[in-house]
Write a structure and sequence with these properties.
Length: about 70
């Protein structure tokens, strides 16, 4: 669950956190949008799990679920 970002309690700008942030939710609820904005704000890399899965599997997520 994401709570409001408080810059006073979060990592200092440019400081990397050693804990990954994972957003979980139903399709279409905005995980990618929130994740990209959060990564930008925290100056962390954004990784889209769907893209990583598709690259590893050599097929789309939809194709994986069709099997």
């Amino acid at each position: 669950m994401l709570q409001s970002h408080n810059p006073d309690t979060g990592p200092a700008k440019g400081q990397r956190t050693h804990r990954p942030i994972v957003l979980v939710g139903l399709m279409g609820v905005g995980k990618t949008t929130v994740g990209r904005r959060l990564a930008q704000r925290l100056r962390l890399p954004f990784v889209d799990a769907d893209h990583e899965i598709e690259a590893a599997a050599g097929m789309t997520v939809a194709e994986i679920f069709e099997r």
